[in-house]
Amino acid sequence: MAQYIGAIDSGTTSTRFMLFDQNGAIVAFDQREHTQIFPQSGWVEHDPQEIWERTRQVIGATLAKAQVRADDLAAVGITNQRETTIVWDRHTGKPVYNAIVWQDTRTAAICRELQEAGHGDFIYRKTGLPVATYFAGPKIRWILDNVSGAREAAERGDLLFGTVDTWLLWNLTGGRHITDVTNASRTMLMDLETLDWDEELLAILGIPRAMLPEIRPSSDPDLYGHTRRDGPFQSEVPLGGDLGDQQAATVGQTCFSPGEAKNTYGTGCFMLLNTGTDIVRSQNGLLTTVCYQMGNEPAVYALEGSIAMAGATVQWLRDNLQLIKDAAETEAIAQSVPDNGGCYLVPAFSGLFAPYWRSDARGVIVGLTRYVNRAHIVRAALESICYQTREVLEAMNADSGVPLRSLRVDGGATVNNFLMQLQADILGAEVLRPRVAETTSLGAAYAAGLAVGFWPDLESLRANWHVDRRWQPQIGEAEREAGYAGWKKAVTRTFNWVEA
Ligand SMILES: Nc1ncnc2c1ncn2[C@@H]1O[C@H](COP(=O)(O)OP(=O)(O)O)[C@@H](O)[C@H]1O
Ligand SMILES: O=P(O)(O)OC[C@H](O)CO
After folding, report:
1. How far is Cα 388 from Cα 353, in angstroms, rounded to an integer?
2. 137 in ligand 2 pocket by Cβ < 6 Å?
3. Residue 54 annotated as part of some ligand binding site
4. ipTM attached to this prediction
5. What is the pLDDT of residue 500?
6. Would you give the distance in Å from CA 107 to the centre of its chain?
7. Which residue's C-alpha comes closest to atom 5 of ligand 1?
8. DSSP H or E segment with residue 215
9. Alpha helices of 276-373 — where are they, by DSSP H?
């Protein structure tokens, strides 16, 4: 019997391929970054061909490292940065434009028009999403409006849309055009109740239905297809799992019961709270989204607090300000000062996402005096991740009425132990990091493994979750609240920066 499950994790900054065994332990992996393209202020793009190339490379390198043949894989799952939008020609397979990344704000005018035309409430009721530049629908519309000949070609049925999962499935299978419910729930085009594309939403955004992929469960016993023999696996491996990366991390953290939540610290930071089969509407700026759908089971929903800039703020310190040489340095530098020296950094680089949804906001560093030095700014950058998380957690507590006392964390930035201590201090709650912090890939592996019977059911997966380390708050209430009040004040300074 095949002993492993493979997971492709195509993130905002890099792609990984991982092999997992029956216990959910990592057997081997490889990871490669792709280029971040910033053509103008507020624009963020990726090259879809580069993402596919990196995917091929990490698959080949992982199999070689582990000395595993593709025939030893029971199935492969895919997980991906969500909302990032690719449009390609169905005949040539060539993208008509770069991928427009979830952080990109070029669709602000389209979003404003949708609001002004009074579609905001309808869109929110249907999709659980506020009208914001974050989501895929307005990005597709932008491509149809701005790429020469694109609208006509789309109307002729020659163009296909996909998020990154769909792009990879298309390339891996040689032409299957499929997405899953979690990714579809981030397009602003899917009805959260019917789990199908909605004709009225398509009409409002002017998007031909023929461009859209088939929507399937996140774990599909009918399979999305098999990998092609002439592709990176050089074998026909079943493709059985597909879900957005934040939903995948929720599955990887085994948050299968209503009330269970996780927070993932990658490029952005995303907290998801499982709300079961109920569609819960937020009163506090959170999204309602599909958490997962396993086979023929009903879909499970989640409330989500999305933060656009988390680890990316650290990258900005490194690449744009050159304050640090690598992300790991932030741990020692931030600890070298006792506090932020009165300085706050609010990274509203893509506007502010949850709970504000302000596309008119832009980043600020405030509270500067001659006392403030590099270490204070580095510390303020780490604190910004934790304060944004506190705002989202408060919104979740208010919506669910049940305060979360401990938070399961994962993602690339959780290797920073000082950041985790800051998080416990700023939340006043316990922070728990699991042994396998690569929960995004693990969630995709679980979805694929469940599809082919490698694991029997969701409950059996809980036994694979083990705590690696936990952090308790170490500061008092007064200090915590004073720091938070400073943060709240700093946030107000970001508003109304971009004039309509
Ligand atoms: N030691 C660290 N301290 C703070 N941030 C870190 C550290 N190591 C990595 N990061 C941040 O984590 C992010 C990478 O995490 P990852 O989960 O791979 O992201 P993604 O899936 O979004 O590509 C980067 O933005 C990086 O700046
Ligand atoms: O690439 P990540 O892990 O920061 O995730 C990006 C999110 O999916 C965007 O919604």
Report:
1. 10
2. no
3. no
4. 0.97
5. 62
6. 19
7. 413
8. strand 214-216
9. 311-319, 329-335
